[in-house]
Amino acid sequence: MTSQAPGLWPPSGPEVVFLLLGAVAVGSALLVVTTRQLVHAALWLVVCFGALAGGYLVLTAEFVAWVQVLIYVGAVVVLLLFGIMLTRAPIGPSAGLDSGNRWAAALVAVATAAVLVTVVVTGFRSAYAPLRPGQGAAEPLGASVFRTWVLPFEALSVLLLAALIGAIVLSRTDIRGRE
Amino acid sequence: MHVVYPVVVSALLFSIGVYGVLARRNAILVLMSVELMLNAVNLNLVAFDVWLGDRLHGGQVLTLFVIVIAAAEVGLGLAIVLAVFRTRRTVDVDRLRALAEVVRAPGSGRPDGEDAS
């Protein structure tokens, strides 16, 4: 797996594309956690998820990329926008989105980033994965989902049903708990 | 593709998500930061699946499962946030202290942990 790996620099063509998409993803993620407008945070989240889907495409995981676009960009962000609007969030900049322990949070995040980046760079400096197109297409992925991983797949469908019923029960106002 | 690149991007995304969970006060923004962390994990799973060349595609299938679980989680989380908003008129996680430990201010014997709804 690590034989005849080219050097880390200069990056090859796919790696340059991936690095640019990764920079877009990290930058928009930073804007998600720092912007002062709630709706803008959701829209930057769309940019971040889209860039990540592009990164999956570069990594030859096509099916995961399309599922990411469909579920994250299509469903999750719309749900979050619903939540923003149903909680009557103000449109426009709103003060007080950040709590007082922002500096402690930044310290923890920088420490986490330093530890993680140091560990993965020392651990996987020489790891090289040759990209073979078609590795993550729908056909091999579907075959392995419905052969090897069919039991967790069914368990997940039960989980989704339970989450659906739970969300309905929680959000209906005419169902009351016992007093 | 060097494995370092996606893994470093995912580590940065994860720590940005950690910052968001710790620093934001709006519950919906906290949920968004949790989504960022889940996406970091997904990128890791895909990168290592491509690196190891797993014939069962364990990494990518697990990524699909994590995406499904994230969808269920955000649905339930938003239902809970809306229920909290209906009863308390706020989604500010700093002010939702009904389940917090009661902090007694020194001097006064008054419990400080009441929620100001």
Summed up, what is this model?
The complex is a heterodimer of chains A (about 180) and B (about 120). Chain A has helices at about 15-35, 40-60, 60-85, 100-125, 140-145, 150-170. By secondary structure, chain A is an all-alpha fold.
Please name the defining characteristics of this protein.
heterodimer, A: 179 residues, mainly alpha, Four Helix Bundle (Hemerythrin (Met), subunit A), 6 helices, globular, B: 117 residues, Helix Hairpins, elongated, transport (chain B), NAD (chain B), quinone binding (chain B), NADH dehydrogenase (quinone) (non-electrogenic) activity (chain B)
What this model shows, in words?
The complex is a heterodimer of chains A (179) and B (117). Chain A has a domain of 122 residues: NADH-ubiquinone/plastoquinone oxidoreductase chain 6, subunit NuoJ (Four Helix Bundle (Hemerythrin (Met), subunit A)). Chain A is globular, with a radius of gyration of 21 Å. Helix content of chain A is 68%, strand content 0%. Chain A is mostly helical. By secondary structure, chain B is an all-alpha fold. Chain B has a single domain, classed as Helix Hairpins, CATH 1.10.287. Chain B is built from 3 helices and no strands. The longest helix of chain B has 31 residues. The C terminus of chain B is likely disordered. Classes of the chains: A mainly alpha (179), B mainly alpha (117). Chains A and B meet through helix 1, helix 2, helix 3, helix 4 and helix 5 of A and helix 1, helix 2 and helix 3 of B.
